[in-house]
Specification:
The complex is a heterodimer of chains A (94) and B (186). Chain A has 94 residues and is mainly beta. In chain A, 9% of the residues lie in helices and 36% in strands. Chain A has a 5-stranded antiparallel beta sheet with strand order 4-3-2-1-5. With 186 residues, chain B is an alpha/beta fold. Chain B is globular and about 55 Å long. The N and C termini of chain B lie far apart (43 Å). In chain B, the strands form 2 sheets. Chain B has a two-stranded parallel ribbon. Chain B has a two-stranded parallel ribbon with strand order 2-3. In chain B, helix 3 crosses helix 4 and helix 3 crosses helix 10. The chains are: A mainly beta (94), B alpha/beta (186). At the A-B interface, strand 2 and strand 4 of A face helix 9 and strand 3 of B. Strand 4 of chain A pairs parallel with strand 3 of chain B, so a sheet runs across the interface.
Chain lengths: 94, 186
């Protein structure tokens, strides 16, 4: 399954706060980063959590964020990074 | 939380403490700490290390380790980058490779702080990362599992894989410490 986004592409995590089981941590919602790698397509955990089959599968990306952007008061050098896995439906082009 | 749940289930007679203990022992038996052997092999065999970083699951399979459904991402420490792993949402951990996660890995303190002030947390583990080295935190928040490939320390030239494996601790494979070149039992 091909994803919408390419490695290196700038993306933004949606600043969305729906109820339910989500694998997108609150602290990263609304933040900008870039695609680090494409992990493949996986059953949607937001469906699996409630006993559904997770279909259609969703493309999962690893997204890299500068720490200084994620935490404006971050105490460390500019170069420090945080990376995590974000499903495609949580991402928009930035 | 899990403790409170367990106590409730025991109180209601759904499970017994004995069953929980037996299950944990079975788990420890089925999934012992095997990461050190894999990393020691990667230290002595550059092409294996390259494979491990490209496809962790396939490399482990080649080594005779089935890491089950986990997709394994191996991230390599270099003189420029230090990696550290956390799961902020729960306690995702490459259990089939490293066994049960340590208590601190599951603690709110670690999970909350290592994403926000990784250098301070690493310092508490005795790991000082110079400012010119990038600290790369991996939040293991969904389907991937992570293992850090530490740098082989200077002073271990000529060591056997067994000797190398003995200094590769679980903590080093999560990235909170780095291996020290001290021969065990020496």
């Amino acid at each position: 399954m091909d994803g919408k986004f390419k490695v290196g592409q700038p993306v933004r995590v949606k600043a969305s706060y729906p109820p339910g089981h989500r694998r997108t941590p609150f602290y990263i919602r609304g933040k900008r980063g870039e695609i680090e790698r494409i992990c493949g397509a996986f059953p949607n955990p937001e469906e699996l959590a409630y006993g559904f089959d997770g279909e259609p599968k969703r493309v999962l990306y690893r997204v890299r964020f500068p720490q200084k952007h994620v935490w404006p008061d971050y105490r460390g050098p500019e170069r420090d990074l945080i990376e995590m896995e974000i499903y495609e439906h949580w991402l928009e082009p930035a | 939380m899990s403790r409170a749940m367990q106590e409730l289930l025991e109180e209601k007679g759904v499970i017994t403490a004995e069953q929980v203990r037996a299950r944990m022992e079975q788990y420890d038996h089925d999934f012992p700490y095997r990461g050190a052997r894999v990393i020691a092999h990667a230290w002595v065999d550059a092409s294996f290390k390259e494979k491990l970083i490209r496809d962790g699951k396939a490399a482990c399979a080649e080594f005779g380790l089935d890491i089950e459904a986990d997709k394994l991402i191996a991230v390599e420490n270099t003189p420029q980058v230090h990696n550290v792993v956390v799961c902020t949402l729960c306690s995702c951990y490459p259990r089939a490779l490293l066994g049960m996660p340590p208590t601190w890995y599951k603690s709110e303190n670690y999970r909350r702080r290592v994403v926000r002030e990784p250098r301070a947390v690493l310092k508490e583990f005795g790991t000082l990362i110079p400012d010119e080295v990038t600290v790369r935190v991996h939040d293991s928040n969904a389907d991937m599992r992570y293992v850090v490939v530490p740098m082989r320390p200077a002073g271990t030239e000529g060591w056997s894989e067994e000797q190398l494996a003995a200094i590769i601790t679980r903590d080093a494979l999560v990235g909170v410490t780095v291996p020290k070149p001290v021969l065990r039992g020496a």
